[in-house]
Amino acid sequence: MDDRTTPRSKGQAQIILAVSPADGLVAVPVGEQYPWANTALQLTPGFEQRPDGTYALRDVDTAAPILRALADTARRHRVHLFGGPRTYLGDYAAALADGLPGQWTVKVEVYAHPVWQEDLVPLLWDAGELIDCVEHIRIPYAAQLTNGAGIELLLAERPGSTDEYLLGSFTSATFDDNYADPHTPTSIVLPSDAAHAAGLVIGTFLPAYEQAVHERLLAAVEAAHGRLEELHTTWTAIQHSGRYSDGTRLDPATLGHTQQQYLEEGSVEWRRLCPHAAALLSRMRSVADAEDSASLDRLHQLLHPDAASSTWPAPGSSPAALPPSTAEALRRWRTDAPALLRQARATRPVGPATTARPAIPAVGKAPPSALERAPRSR
To answer: What does the DSSP assignment read for 139-205?
Structure first.
């Protein structure tokens, strides 16, 4: 048996063995022909298959003869065995989660076939070593840590190290595209001592993550608000001047069609904006300014029309409101959005002392709007 916990490229089937303080000895079948490894473990008495795809040998006192039997069976099925002194990842993840604030759940995922780990790439929100390893190095298994409040983390053994780990984050719930995001947080290297690692996560990683989430939401809401404002300005100018932006006179017969275009474009932008605005609003706490507080209350009603409570923050219960029309929703958003943006800028998370705050990009010019030159009727 090779004294390594990361399988080498040779061999199409491998079994990784790791010591578990909770479960004795854990075996993880992996490789392009991982079913061969499964067969070897199933034919070896003493190993119990678990729902996550791993096997456990709980009676470590009888491990020696069972491991010899496993080695013989693995050889017959062309399976390579790997092992080392590193504690099983699931135990380390559980100990790490116990040291973090709040309630965390831990789930080990086995990427038995090498291509399975590729599914992680679009989901990870990381600008550090973790995403690079997932993209280019074999990661046979990892642990997902979730706190039930929207934070999802990925923990993996650091390739090339026998006692270090990598921790990074999945994207926050309202986003589905992480490509070239300037606010992406950086994964952190953790030591083997789970208590020390938890202190690093609390003091460094989580503050940087919260800062990144806040800045990304704020940037998304600012950009969408800017596009809605530009749409409104264009439509208002057309109404007042009776001309399109290129100077062409507006045919009164097409006024209704032009207004419908404005509402359709605004509706698309509004649907994109809503989840980001709601998430940003949820990060706000009680506001001292009475006018801003009233604006945030109205935005809560607008963004949660079917919620039991119509006040922000939600203390009680009241009848659910009917969803407003697009025109009414856009009017209400334009009225109260400045308060949300103002408070979000004023309450940016500080982040870790050594982490520089990402700059908020300026709101870019909106893409050309169909309102700028609506087709004339023939």
So the answer is: --EEEEEE-SSS-EEEEEEPTT-SS-EEEEEEPPTT----TT-TT----EEE-S-HHHHHHHIIIII
Largest CA distance in the chain: 91
- Mind giving me the DSSP string for 304-360? -TTSS--SSS--S--PPPPPPPHHHHHHHHHHHHHHHHHHHHHT-----TTSPPPPP
Distance in angstroms (rounded) separating the CA atoms of residues 112 and 33? 9
Least confident range from 18-22, 162-166, 188-192, 231-235: namely: 231-235
Q: Which helix or strand (DSSP H or E) is residue 80 part of?
A: strand 80-87
Instruction: Write the pLDDT tens digit of every residue in 116-163.
Output: 999 999 999 999 999 999 999 999 999 999 998 889 999 999 999 999
Q: How far apart are CA 118 and CA 134, in angstroms?
A: 7
What are the φ/ψ torsions at residue 311 (nearest 5 degrees)? -120, 160
Distance CA 219, CA 150 (A): 19
Judge contact between 4 and 72, C-beta under 8 A: no
| CA distances, 361 to each of 181, 182, 220, 228, 296 (Å) | 11, 9, 10, 17, 24
Which residues lie below 8 Å from residue 292, measured CB to CB, with a gap of 6+?
A: 339, 342, 343
How many angstroms separate the CA atoms of 154 and 188, rounded?
11
Long-range contacts of 254-259 (CB under 8 A, 24+ apart): 254/374, 254/375, 254/376, 254/377, 257/374, 257/377, 258/371, 258/374, 259/235
CA distance 70 to 340: 62
Cross-sheet strand order for the sheet of 48-49 = 48-49, 55-57, 24-30, 14-20, 80-87
Provide the residue type at 114 as one letter. Answer: P
User: For residue 171, what are its two tokens?
Assistant: 């994207």
> For residues 88 and 25, what is the distance between their CA atoms, to the nearest angstrom?
8
- Show me where the domains of the chain are located: 14-86, 92-192, 214-373
